[in-house]
Design a protein that fits this description.
Layout lengths: L5 H17 L1 H15 L5 H4 L4 H11 L12 H14 L9 E5 L5 H8 L3 E6 L4 H10 L3 E3 L15 E6 L16 H12 L2 E10 L8 H9 L3 E3 L2 E4 L16 H17 L1
């Protein structure tokens, strides 16, 4: 299109834009943005509950740090990100719920929910100092635990109305960085169901390339989820078929062997 007048280029692009607007994915995302404006969640009252002197001290120590996780010291930015998550799940307009967040990181999502009156619990590894400092700053309860393939979660002493996970990374084998397949996810979902109250909901937000894997999307749909790119929402609970144990030497047993090999290499 080089050399064409700008107005002709714009007219040629217009049908593409119209088609994009007509796509269900585009419509749903646009509607969520509109809904956030209808039901706002002001951050100023939440910021007022944070010890600002302690926050400044944390931010000064991590300023200029080359570590990738140091970006989470920008509390205002990640409060805004997690405000949208709370709004999109309508938890700012909900009666008090019990919420478990897998891979809770610095606890931004749970901090907002706690101040809205929900009962919250985070679950994450404990080797990132900034996350620990933020969780303590926000006074968010956390259980230290590493989620591994084919291993159940610990007894958390209660059941939850919501189980969430954002920017999921626990589904990567270490050190190979291979992503989980349907067998690993199926095990996790069955285990999570034991931690849900009747009618409880599960929401995952995956990272690429996981949400580009069509076979994984098909798997989540078969288990009762609504799949929208990275958004995996079990709004009406899980649909789990009866378990059929894989014979030795099958694909599923091979996946278990890979998991054991990766964990052995990681931990020696």
């Amino acid at each position: 299109m080089r050399g064409l007048p700008y107005y002709l280029i714009s007219e040629m692009k217009l049908p593409h834009k119209i088609r994009k607007l007509a796509q269900p994915l585009t419509y749903r995302r646009a509607w969520r943005r509109v809904r956030r404006s209808f039901f706002p969640l002001p951050l100023a009252p939440l910021r007022a509950k944070i010890d600002q002197e302690r926050l400044r001290e944390i931010q000064q120590r991590y300023a200029g740090s080359p570590e990738g996780f140091s970006k989470y010291a920008d509390v205002d930015r990640y409060l805004r990100v997690n405000r949208e998550r709370v709004q999109d799940l309508k938890l700012h307009r909900s009666t008090p719920k019990r919420v478990l967040d897998l891979g809770c990181g610095g606890g931004f999502f749970l901090f907002i929910l706690k101040k809205l009156g929900h009962s919250v619990l985070g679950l994450d590894v404990g080797h990132i100092d900034l996350y620990t400092e933020l969780v303590e700053l926000f006074d968010v309860p956390r259980v230290l635990w590493k989620i591994c393939a084919f291993e159940p979660l610990p007894d958390l002493g209660q059941k939850f109305d919501w189980i969430t996970a954002f920017s999921v990374r626990f589904n990567l084998y270490q050190p190979s960085k291979r992503s989980w397949g349907s067998a690993e996810w199926d095990f996790l979902l069955r285990n999570l169901q034991r931690h849900l109250t009747p009618g409880g909901k599960i929401f995952f937000e995956l990272n690429p390339p996981d949400y580009h894997a069509s076979e994984l999307g098909d798997f989540f749909v078969s288990r009762g989820a609504t799949v929208e790119r990275e958004r995996i929402f079990f709004e009406k609970g899980l649909r789990l078929p009866s378990v059929s144990y894989a014979p030795f030497g099958s694909k599923e047993s091979e996946l278990t062997s890979v998991a054991e090999a990766d964990n052995h290499e990681l931990h020696g």
